[in-house]
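Document type: protein sequence-to-structure record

Subject area: structural biology

Format: plain text, a pair of labelled lines:
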Amino acid sequence: MPRSIRALVAARAGEPLDVLRLESRPVPTPSAGQALIRVRATPIHASDLHVLRGRYGFTPGFPTVGGHMECVGRIEALGSDTGGFEVGERVVAAAVPAVPGSPADGTWQEYLVADTHRLLPVPDRLSDSTACQLAVNPLTALLLVTRELDVQPGEWLLQTAAGSTVGRLVIQLCGHLGIRTINVVRRRAAVEEIEALGGDEVICTEDEDLPQRVAAVAGPAGVRKAIDCVAGPVGAQVSQALAPGGEVVVYGALSTHRQTDPAALTIPLQARSVIYETKVVRGFWLNRWFGTASPEDALRALSEVRGLVADEVLTIPQGQPFPLERFAEAVPLAEAPAHGTKPLFVFEDGPGEVDK
């Protein structure tokens, strides 16, 4: 066991590359009900960067270790009177802070203390790249489709940002469950790619009217269930396209990611449509789901995701590995347009082990 570890720390809120510094810290000590994880790989999500900017749904206490989402590693030590796991066991840590709930340690460090009820054992046949991305995007896709909206086989599901990570996972999951998807993209060049992935219908907002195309595809019955990750005018069009009594769950606001004025983070809904057609617009946030779900329910959902990924129903693209020292190169890739692969911080135990 080393005496100190490397950690990527933000002293204050601000633009990530302005506030992040590589620091040496003491090895943390697990308490009862906790485990010390030797981190092998951890992703850099765009939402991680919004946390550091102070523009996310929660604000950590600064200074803070970055990466408030997920990682994979092996258990190095267990707190006193802590059962259910073994030293050396390979696990995913769902490090998403629960809201409401107590703070969670950031994952951008070599060793991490995590509550054992947030740990999921993972088989060695899943690569570190795949395992470290299990607990956020695939879980979000599963919850949106099967729990938040309970979409049934044969039903239509309308979704925006179909080319995003969650959007692609939703297409794969719906294909597996027999659900038909109407997928919204903003570039004509993306249409063929989404069709090849298994999207049943694709609407390009660059040159198509969203509500008209939805009506043409779904027919008189319309679409009763939708998920939106864009907000703004596109989110409003999704609401407009719903059948009477329909529901849209908003889980992101890609159209406003560079917006710093909270008053501008809006969805301009048509009041007549919402009132007279009794449509529902509501939000979903994984942090709040962790804050309301029981530990047993959260573990069941994570276990279901693990099974879907292990059975290759859901495919997580290989990430791009970076050592922690190259954070200035890695961090911007999380928000780079069409960067293609998720940047990951990796901590290698030996040559080539990260891609085992």
Remarks:
- The CA atoms of residues 18 and 26 lie 24 Å apart.
